[in-house]
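Task: sequence in, structure out. Protein: Photosystem I assembly protein Ycf3.
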Amino acid sequence: MPRSRINGNFIDKTFSIVANILLRIIPTTSGEKEAFTYYRDGNYAEALQNYYEAMRLEIDPYDRSYILYNIGLIHTRNGEHTKALEYYFRALERNPFLPQALNNMAVICHYAIRQGDSEIAEAWFDQAAEYWKQAIALTPGNYIEAQNWLKITRRFE
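Result:
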């Protein structure tokens, strides 16, 4: 599918422009840039291969945290939530200041509520709340919808 059809609306076009600029200015390896390009274009299998290769080559824990986070994103996108959570946890082990990983973990927990047993729903809600609280603590101005959900459900202190 041509890139122009993939980026058919304004938000997608804006994302593509910003992503292309960031790819030029952020100091990343060519493998990481290639992996992100595949991800941006929706070729998740190729992106995963490149991210796995980047993990093999990258030694810096901070950079590895973002590679692991991106692998988690792909698994989330593919509906492989258990694998995604594993990669988000691994990313946070290397870099505990990734609010986006915490947010995505909370979203997965919140989503699991809809799929699962009503008896364990409260535990999933509580887990989602904990992840969102951590993400909000790292970036107080972000995740407004999560903050509202925490207030509505009386989980925000």
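The CA atoms of residues 113 and 121 lie 5 Å apart.
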